[in-house]
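Q: For a teaching handout, I want to show students what a protein-ligand complex looks like in token form. Below are the inputs, and the small molecule is pyridoxal-5'-phosphate. Please produce the holo structure.
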Amino acid sequence: MTDRPMGFDTLCIHAATAPDPATGARQVPIYQTTAYVFRDADHAAKLFNLQEVGYIYSRLTNPTVSALANRVVALEGGAGGIACSSGHAAQIMALFPIMAPGRNVVASTRLYGGTIQQFSNTIRKFGWSAKFVDFDDPKAIEAAIDGDTRALFCETICNPGGAISDLDAIARVADMAGIPLIVDNTTASPYLCRPIEHGATLVVHSATKYLTGNGTVTGGIVVDSGKFNWSASDKFPSLSQPEPAYHGLVFHPTLGNMAFTFHSIAIGLRDLGMTMNPQGAHYTLMGIETLALRMQRHVENAQIVAEWLEQDPRIGKVTYPGLKSSAYHHLAQKITPKGPGALFTFSVKGGYEACVKLIDNVKLFSHVANLGDTRSLIIHSASTTHRQLSEEAQIKAGAAPDVVRVSIGIENVEDIIADLDQALAKATA
Ligand SMILES: *Cc1c(COP(=O)(O)O)cnc(C)c1O
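A: Here is the structure, written as tokens, with pyridoxal-5'-phosphate included.
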């Protein structure tokens, strides 16, 4: 290897891995082990004191899992990170070092439904809370921040409607308030957007989606930019002051830009245990090898399908930001210049009934509650994920009764269009 920085596609295949030192194995081995033999008592003591980096127990770190975390860190341009058991686990792990009872996170109203749920109810069990505001309006974000706010949280490309977050503008609000911006980059993947370059402090992923890419693994990643000064105020005592959960270690002064990552491993993974397993990490590493190729095809197909739908008389509105008709078209060119993802919604003339018929008649598309698969996926939110909501709430969430959501796969685009065409014919007959 030369000294010049490697390109993104190369990093997808090579970052953070070398042939196995013990065997020369070219591929990262699946280290299916729980524990690691210490060289001697002194070595063990140094590991537990964080004076030497190494493996102790796989709830904390495992070579296969670390290879995955570090590869995504390289792709996102971060300083450190961890892999964990799901995207939802990653969100808790990202908040854990910076939150405390009574503290809140200011979050976008346009988040993945599961995250709205996690932030509305479940985190209250920890004494944390969330305030939801419209992240298209920096003034509204500013107004929601109070003395107990410890982070801003949004998604790069918002699910399901494909709204794009102006990360630079949001990061400026976070900077002024002296708090980190956490960006869920699941729907963009680092191929389409690297939020740290737009001012994000932390990036979280559901590795379940594009990173793995084929619907085989549930996993999550947290990446820390290493750029936030946790000691600039007294807002982040777990990082800036002696941490009672780790015999009084002062993480930020001692570990610098790796403070957040080491806190996440030494305390977060140790005590919350939301660890990824080596098999899952292996599958995700395999997926990432083709991330760049897949994302290119995902956005290429999504653009063609969205344009085809938009001109079809059976269709109402198409929300894809790659279309000039989208309110987010300009922002997409700034935030996701290689393409605004492959997830969007469209409305069908004929309403709820037509949508249900469409779903029942697709053959290539799979009717599932997932996204980011190689396969094209479709769901009618109003009759599934959003069926408990009132019609008014469904409309607000971008899941009106006449709307279906698609995650466009990497099949031949002619086949994707042909499938929608035949199903639409039956749905609107
Ligand atoms: C799926 C998803 C999550 C949750 O991830 P899991 O791996 O299912 O826990 C979070 N955010 C977004 C944007 C998602 O699509």
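A: Two things your students might notice: Residues 321 and 327 are 7 Å apart (CA to CA). The two ends are 60 Å apart (CA to CA).
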